[in-house]
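Hi everyone, sorry if this is the wrong subforum. Our group has a chain we'd like a structural model of before ordering constructs, and none of us has done structure prediction before. Sequence below.
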Amino acid sequence: MLHKPVLLREVLELLVLNKNGLYVDGTVGTGGHAIAILKTLGEEGRIIAMDRDPQALETARSVLSQYAQKIIFIRDRFSKIHENLTSMNIAEVDGILLDLGMSNPQIQSSGRGFSFLKDEPLDMRMDPDLKLTAKDVVNTYREKELARLLKDFGEEDKAQKIAKAIVHQRKIRKIETSKELAELVARAKNAKYSRIHPATKTFMALRIHINDELSELKIFLESAPRLLTHKGRLCIISYHSLEDRMVKTSFNSLKNHGFQVITKKPIRPSRDEIQENPSARSAKLRIIERS
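Answer:
Right subforum, don't worry. Here is the predicted structure as tokens:
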């Protein structure tokens, strides 16, 4: 099941201004945005495709194989964009795209416990070289640490209650799988299943913590805008308020300092897109341009 790229039409219209330019997809995933960008590029157009997840990168290599001569693949975190471009003697690019969401294959078939609807080992590492797993966190962190993590990264208002339930359960038996954790959280919240699963925020908080996602984004925002050429654009699609606030604050701080914010308000998916792809419902696209 390939990932359906979010806000694709808007990304193509607002990112690819130079058909023969050089672009970076910092979260290439399974290649959904990248293949569409490649189809619009001219003969000289190129893409640098980055991802920290080796499974995703292998899928992207396969999906994008017909454009192999126009792509450079890099397995690394997007926070390392400056180091990677410098190592290739690239000083500027025409555009950069980040899609901070999870891909469907990561959720549905990675076997790493990202989904609360699956019964998989509690891993949640996007990069298998990372040492800390979600299983480590839920079975070793103190109750206070767990509560703070769920509150800070998941904005979970029942954080204390969930943390207490986790600590109680692991005294009886270790929490091993995504299904065990999801059911535990649902019981702790005494929540009936609605459109949003009661474990959604807990799983998001663990994933953000395991993969140090907010620190990665902070580092990226400090370096990436300066890699843009004149009239080059940085497009970022975020899915929750923590990320969106960081992007908005960073972009606003660059106004009147050689950059123009293209999106005074974030671009949201249309009703039709959300109907076709429900995972797009919380997406927000913000864009900045170098003057």
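For your construct planning: The first helix runs from residue 8 to 15. The chain has two domains: 8-105+213-290, 131-210.
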